[in-house]
Design brief:
Threonyl-tRNA Synthetase, Chain A, domain 2, single chain, EC 3.1.3.70, 9 helices, HAD-like_sf, mannosyl-3-phosphoglycerate phosphatase activity, 8-stranded mixed β-sheet, alpha/beta, HAD-SF_hydro_IIB, 4-stranded antiparallel β-sheet, Mannosyl-3-phosphoglycerate phosphatase-related protein, 2 domains, Rossmann fold
C-alpha cells in the first residue's frame, strides 16, 4: 500500500474527479489537499484542460509550481525547480493545435462528418456547453496541441472517423463531456510515464505512484501508476484497466471530489 512519504507522487484527472462534473467545485477535497501540501506530496494535475486553465487552477488549489499534464498528455509542464532541464518549462508532443484543426476541417469537408470543435464557436457557446464560469472560458480556448469537439454523428461514423485520424498520426479520446483529438505521441499514459522518469532522475530514489480518474480516457493514466482510483463517473462506457485487481484498483461509491477523497481515504487513511 502507498504511504505519505517523499517517494509518493499522485496524478489526478480534474473534471469529474477532483472537480465536480457539473459545478466544477472542489470543496469536498479540501482536507486532503491540505494534508498532501503539508506532507509535500506532489499532486500532478492531469487533464484535458489547457495549460492556461491548469495554471489558474493550481493557484486556486495551492499547487503553484508543480508539474502538470494538459490537453490529455499533449502538453507537459515541468516542476518550477527543474529549470536546468532541457525541456523546461514545458514539452509539447507532436502536432500543434492549428495543424490538427486544419486536418479536422479537411476530413469534415471530404467525408461530411458531423462534429463541432470549440474552435468553431464563440466563448458564450463554449460556456453554455461546458458550464465553465466566464473567467475560465477564454482560458479553455487556448489549446496548443489538441482540439476538443462534440460528436454529432453515428457510432459507425465515429469508428470511421477514428480510423481516418489514426492514419494521419492522431488519436481520439473520450472525455467526460467532450471528445479530444491529439497527436499519437501524446496521451495521459505516455505523459505520466515520462514525468515519472523525470521524478526518478531528480530524486534518485524509488517512486510510488497513485492515480485518480473517472472516464475511459483516464485508463492510460490509471494503467501507468502503481495504485488506481476510479472515481464514479457519468460516461456511458466503463473504465477498463489492464490490471484490474482489488489490491491495485479501488472504485468509489461517490462522484467527483467526494469520490476523490474517498479514494485517498481507501489507500492512504492509515498512512
Amino acid at each position: 500500500m502507498p504511504a505519505l512519504t517523499e517517494s509518493l507522487v499522485i496524478f489526478s484527472d480534474l473534471d469529474g474527479t477532483l472537480l465536480d462534473h457539473n459545478t466544477h467545485e472542489w470543496d469536498a477535497a479540501r482536507a486532503w489537499l491540505t494534508r498532501l501540501t503539508s506532507k509535500q506530496i506532489p499532486l500532478v494535475l492531469c487533464s484535458s484542460k489547457t495549460a492556461a486553465e491548469i495554471i489558474a487552477l493550481q493557484k486556486e488549489l495551492g499547487l503553484q509550481g508543480q508539474p502538470f499534464i494538459a490537453e490529455n498528455g499533449a502538453v507537459i509542464a515541468l516542476d518550477e525547480s527543474w529549470n536546468d532541464h532541457p525541456d523546461y518549462p514545458r514539452l509539447l508532443a507532436g502536432a500543434r493545435h492549428e495543424e490538427i484543426r486544419l486536418l479536422l476541417g479537411r476530413l469534415r469537408d471530404t467525408h461530411g462528418y458531423k462534429f463541432t470543435g470549440i474552435s468553431d464557436v464563440d466563448e458564450d457557446t463554449l460556456a453554455e456547453w461546458s458550464g465553465l464560469p466566464p473567467k475560465r472560458v477564454s482560458l479553455a480556448m487556448l489549446q496548443e496541441a489538441s482540439e476538443t469537439l462534440i460528436w454529432r454523428d453515428s457510432d459507425d461514423r465515429l469508428a470511421a472517423f477514428t480510423t481516418e485520424l489514426e492514419q494521419n498520426g492522431l488519436m481520439l479520446i473520450e472525455g467526460g463531456r467532450f471528445w479530444h483529438v491529439l497527436d499519437q505521441q501524446g496521451g495521459k499514459g505516455q505523459a505520466v510515464a515520462w514525468l515519472m522518469k523525470q521524478y526518478r532522475a531528480q530524486r534518485g530514489s524509488s517512486l510510488t505512484t497513485l492515480g485518480l480518474g473517472d472516464a475511459p480516457g483516464d485508463a492510460p493514466l490509471l494503467d501507468a501508476v502503481d495504485y488506481a482510483v476510479i472515481v464514479k463517473g457519468y460516461s456511458r462506457n466503463p473504465v477498463i484497466l489492464k490490471q484490474d485487481n482489488p489490491e491495485r484498483v479501488y472504485r468509489t461509491e461517490q462522484h467527483g471530489p467526494a469520490g476523490w477523497s474517498e479514494g485517498l481515504d481507501h489507500f492512504l487513511a492509515d498512512a
